[in-house]
Amino acid sequence: QVQLVESGGGLVQAGGSLRLSCAASGTIFRINSMGWYRQAPGKQRELVANITSGGSTNYADSVKGRFTISRDNAKNTVYLQMNSLKPEDTALYYCNANLRRTVWGKNDDYWGQGTQVTVSS
Hints:
By secondary structure, this protein is an all-beta fold. The chain contains no helices and 11 strands. Strands 2, 4, 5, 6, 9, 10 and 11 form a 7-stranded mixed β-sheet that branches. A hairpin with a 4-residue loop joins strand 7 and strand 8 (77-82). It starts with a strand and ends with a strand.
């Protein structure tokens, strides 16, 4: 069993900041990458940012320069620092981890339950 528990969402005014956290727990052999996706009402889920175990990062163009993803491998935790938030950042944010549960297992994707981020204008 693997669980991803997110925290840090909320309501903020445009221009403000929020920090999301996501901790993975359970039977985990290796986490390959962790990241954040978001889904706004009526839209498809999209990648916000992800980070590999080696620290390589990837960002959606819409958040480059405003959001920063980081990771604590010892704690199996990923963070998303969101600055200069805009109303269009409003969405349900999901944590994702691509991991292997055992040395003989295969890599699989796991998801958190989602945390709401609302940015008012």
